[in-house]
């Protein structure tokens, strides 16, 4: 019998079912696929813990052999420590750490031009190598032998992993920084900044106008020149969205989700809030969106969060500085009583929490807290009674000018405090709120550049604003935006087309310390995983008189 064409020999219904089976088979296979018995989503979560924290899927620390025979915990030598969170590697002091992200592991490295970023391209790639496979990558991780068969440096740990653990880690590396992040997948990079309700018009303009002008007049206007100078064609124009958050902070999260759903952004830059930043912080952590240098004195203070880089810990940091000064500089006796006076408001509570935490870390007995109740007046009788209850104690007055109207009574009693501490930020530079008699034994936390040191940096900011025809409406805020734009330029140039959010953050972490471009602080220092760039605070005294001078009592305290 002569063979018939397939379509004529098989009944139509059978042919339809046959085709549909094969069309659907890949989808079924993908749906049911597992990595070492885990779903792809779970395997990525477990792999991230291995890569970034050195923890096995069991939750126990990984083990690794270092320098030939030293067995160490993987938590001490995590992959991210050297290869960075993004996996795109680093170069420091001429030492090149190669990328470990999927897009570059599974491609050959022929020369330094194959390395990501401007900084990486300056490193020396001693030996080319072919692309890795799953098998050669597993061998490199276990035995320190690269895809070309060369023995790696002994500083590269040899991780002790079984086959299932290795399968998870390899799967994670294959997916690490393998495709551009949302907000940078088209022909431009979309950024956003945030302004909350309660921010004054002057402060809003001081933050938004310079930021928008920088993007329009500097970055976007100079893309052609930048590409010609660096011989790179990977730079993209930037667009800036203004996310205006209305109402109380508990409603911000829903608004943020709506903004992001409508138009995903690559990162949030700057931003200014009249309330604590924690709703924005939580949104960025959950959605893995970088948030770079928002202007807030009420940040989230966390040891483990990653996606928000702050100028400082704000009020919390001032409280820590007071504790460190009393414990280390004045060497306060162990039995000296410390009393914190504050209202049940965010600013006072942040100062009190910052002090209490640092004080206890010094092995000291926790301070006594005196929280003013709503409507309670801090008048002369209040201060006299408090001094009598806590004779010769140290008083931490975490209060604004309105609550210090009767504080001069502390100087009129034999039970007066031995030291009074206040926050210059809470006083809002209204130093007259501290009467002359109290200034004799009062100290202030001062978390900014001293006035005599800031004139030059502020002049540069004013010149920059003038060149853009932007009026000065809040020089302190605009000076922070100026620093942000200088850092942002360096980072976007260094990305060199590798538009991954974690790499964006890694590059901020690798910035050099900033001193001349920042008017608000003596120095901003960056480093892997460090999320508060200004790490110190001065302690100062005030001279007597209507226009007191600030007298420095300490260096920029960093512990």
Low-confidence stretches: 1-29
Please give the radius of gyration in angstroms.
29 Å
The main sheet comes to: 7 strands, mixed
Class of secondary structure makeup: alpha/beta
Q: How much helix, percentage-wise, in residues? A: 25-40%
Distance between the terminal alpha carbons, to the nearest Å? 92 Å
Q: Beta-strand level of the residues, as a percent range?
A: 5-15%
List the helices and strands and how they pair.
Blueprint: H1 6-9, H2 12-32, H3 40-53, E1 63-66, E2 70-73, H4 79-83, E3 90-92, E4 95-97, H5 102-105, H6 118-121, H7 134-143, E5 158-159, H8 163-175, E6 189-196, H9 201-219, H10 223-230, E7 238-245, H11 252-262, E8 267-269, H12 278-287, E9 291-292, E10 308-309, H13 315-329, E11 338-343, H14 346-361, E12 368-372, H15 380-389, E13 394-398, E14 419-423, H16 424-427, H17 436-439, E15 442-446, H18 451-467, H19 475-495, H20 501-509, E16 538-542, E17 550-552
Helix pairs in contact: 3-8, 9-19, 11-12, 13-14, 18-19, 19-20
Question: What are the key terms here?
Answer:
559 residues; alpha/beta; seven-stranded mixed beta sheet; five-stranded parallel beta sheet; 17 strands; globular; disordered N terminus
Structure, described:
39% of the residues lie in helices and 13% in strands. Helix 19 (475-495) crosses helix 20. The protein has 20 helices and 17 strands. Strands 12-11-13-14-15-16-17 form a seven-stranded mixed β-sheet. Strands 7-6-8-9-10 form a five-stranded parallel β-sheet, with helices on both faces. Residues 1-29 have low confidence and may be disordered. The chain is globular, with a radius of gyration of 29 Å. It is an alpha/beta fold and 559 residues long. The chain starts with 5 loop residues before the first helix and ends in a 7-residue tail after the last strand. The chain has helices at 6-9, 12-32, 40-53, 79-83, 102-105, 118-121, 134-143, 163-175, 201-219, 223-230, 252-262, 278-287, 315-329, 346-361, 380-389, 424-427, 436-439, 451-467, 475-495, 501-509; strands at residues 63-66, 70-73, 90-92, 95-97, 158-159, 189-196, 238-245, 267-269, 291-292, 308-309, 338-343, 368-372, 394-398, 419-423, 442-446, 538-542, 550-552. The relative contact order is 0.10. A hairpin with a 7-residue loop joins strand 16 (538-542) and strand 17.
């Amino acid at each position: 019998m002569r063979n018939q064409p397939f379509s004529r020999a098989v009944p139509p219904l059978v042919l339809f079912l046959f085709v549909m089976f094969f069309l659907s088979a890949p989808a079924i296979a993908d749906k049911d696929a597992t990595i070492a018995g885990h779903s792809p989503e779970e395997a990525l979560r477990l792999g991230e813990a291995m890569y970034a924290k050195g923890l096995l899927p069991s939750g126990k620390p990984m083990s690794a052999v270092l320098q030939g025979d030293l067995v160490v915990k993987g938590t001490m030598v995590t992959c991210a420590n050297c290869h960075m969170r993004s996996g795109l590697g680093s170069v420091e002091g001429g030492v090149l750490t190669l990328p470990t992200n999927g897009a570059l592991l599974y491609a050959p490295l022929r020369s330094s031009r194959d390395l990501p970023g401007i900084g990486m391209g300056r490193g020396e790639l001693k030996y080319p190598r072919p692309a890795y496979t799953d098998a050669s990558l597993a061998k490199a991780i276990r035995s320190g032998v690269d895809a070309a068969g060369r023995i790696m440096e002994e500083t590269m740990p040899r991780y002790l992993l079984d086959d299932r653990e290795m399968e998870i880690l390899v799967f994670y590396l294959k997916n690490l920084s393998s495709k551009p992040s949302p907000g940078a997948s088209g022909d431009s990079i979309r950024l956003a900044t945030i302004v909350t309700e309660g921010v004054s018009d002057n402060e809003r303009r001081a933050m938004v106008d310079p930021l928008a002008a920088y993007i329009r007049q500097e970055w976007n206007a100079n893309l052609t020149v930048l590409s010609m100078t660096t011989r790179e064609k990977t730079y993209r124009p930037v667009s800036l969205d203004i996310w205006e958050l209305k109402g109380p902070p508990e409603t911000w999260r829903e608004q943020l989700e709506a903004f992001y759903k409508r138009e995903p952004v690559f990162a949030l830059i700057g931003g200014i809030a009249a309330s604590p930043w924690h709703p924005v912080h939580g949104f960025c952590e959950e959605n893995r969106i970088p948030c770079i240098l928002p202007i807030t004195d009420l940040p989230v203070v966390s040891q483990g969060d990653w996606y928000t880089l702050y100028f400082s810990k704000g009020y919390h940091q001032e409280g820590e500085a007071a504790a460190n000064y009393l414990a280390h500089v004045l060497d306060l006796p162990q039995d000296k009583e410390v009393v914190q006076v504050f209202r049940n408001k965010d600013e006072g509570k942040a100062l009190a929490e910052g002090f209490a935490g640092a004080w206890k870390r010094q092995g000291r007995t926790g301070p006594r807290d005196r929280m003013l109740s709503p409507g309670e007046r801090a008048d002369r009788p209040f201060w006299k009674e408090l001094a009598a209850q806590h004779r010769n104690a140290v008083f931490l007055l975490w209060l604004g000018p309105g609550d210090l109207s009767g504080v001069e009574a502390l100087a009129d009693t034999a039970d007066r405090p031995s030291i009074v501490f206040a926050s210059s930020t809470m006083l809002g530079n209204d130093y007259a709120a501290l009467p002359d008699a109290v200034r004799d034994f009062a100290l202030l936390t001062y978390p900014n550049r001293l006035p005599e040191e800031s004139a030059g940096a502020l002049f540069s900011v004013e010149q920059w604003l003038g060149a853009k025809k932007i009026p000065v409406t809040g020089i302190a805020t605009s000076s922070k935006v100026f620093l942000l734009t200088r850092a942002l330029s360096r980072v976007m140039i260094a990305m060199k087309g590798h538009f991954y959010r974690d790499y964006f953050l890694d590059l901020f972490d690798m910035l050099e310390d900033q001193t001349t471009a920042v008017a608000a602080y003596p120095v901003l220092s960056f480093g892997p995983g460090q999320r508060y760039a200004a790490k110190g605070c001065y302690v100062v005294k005030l001279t007597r008189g209507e226009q007191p001078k600030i007298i420095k009592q300490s260096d920029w305290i960093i512990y």
